Amino acid sequence: MSLPHPEPERPQLDPERMQIARTYGRERRRLLPLEIALSAGAFLLWWDVISNPLIAWLESQTTGFDVQVIVYVGLFAALMFVVNLPLDVYRHARSVHYGLSVQSWRSWVVDLLKGLLIGAIIGLPMLLILYHFLAAFPQTWWLWMGLVYLLLTILMTQLAPVLIMPLFLKFTPYEDDTLTPRLRALAEAAGTQVKGVFRTDLSSKTTAANAWLSGLGRTRRIVLGDTLLDEYRADEIVAVFAHEMGHQVHRDLGLGILVSSLVNVVGFLLAGLVMNWTVAEFGYSGPADLRAFPWLVLTLTGFGILTSPLLNGWSRSREWMADRYAYDHGPGSSAFADAMIRLSNQNLADPEPPAWMVWYSYSHPPVTERIRAAQAAGSP
Ligand SMILES: [Zn+2]
To answer: Ligand 1 mean position to 298 CA, how many Å?
Structure first.
């Protein structure tokens, strides 16, 4: 239940906010070389200085392979985490400075710890499965690991909205006399199986607005942030909802799982080839030899860097499709443009990010392009 609120005025792009967004964008980009240098430096330190002595020490302490794997990879993950922590802290401080984040340090640290815990709960069994596959199937492990990844992604997509997201945000079923009938009509016209519309308390963390589609099967839902519901005109909310319906109609979540799983299996295959080469070249006992671990990380990271523009390009094309769906099936493209204008003023998204940055790392088209396209589409 939410109280009716007066309709705000139609939005205009705010030049002052755009200028702040440009500065904020530049500031964030400047951290990139530092981030790469820190991660690469820590990796090289691990490979060159820590890895072999650590393995020798572990082998002198225990014959338990699982323990060796957990301690070795756990320490590696801890090093990478600690090295990147100052940047994360700095980013949060700047986000608070710019008025985007409203999270206290306490709340930020609690979220960070929850994230680590979830990472460990999922990562630990995955790590053991990986190393058992590497030991048992040195030639075909990449295929089995690809399958495990696919199953895990399906399971996590299904469970995330009910098990993981509620650890960070509150979700309440959204009911409202004016909006809900319009949203329901849209969902029915699309003939979709969305199981619910939820309101979430994004304002406990941020001043930015957001909405998303999540879950699979019975957990499939559309989530609208309170930062959107309380500050946007009804037509704009319906337009954003229509965009999410577009994703649902185009089966983007399922396709996304499929595409990322296919890319992943290719990455594992490539890692398998590299591991075989290192075994022959350096006399490792097999791909499960921990001394080959840095090669595994190097191959998978390199592959991730190379495929990132591919996956993001695919994602942007799906976002454009969902935008066009919203023009045609929502209250019109000008309502959608208004929603994007409000989003642009609110979220401090860089209005003109460099083309290479969009090409490489943007999963969504820049918001100014979305506004222009919606205005050019010219439906009421
Ligand atoms: Zn979208």
So the answer is: 32
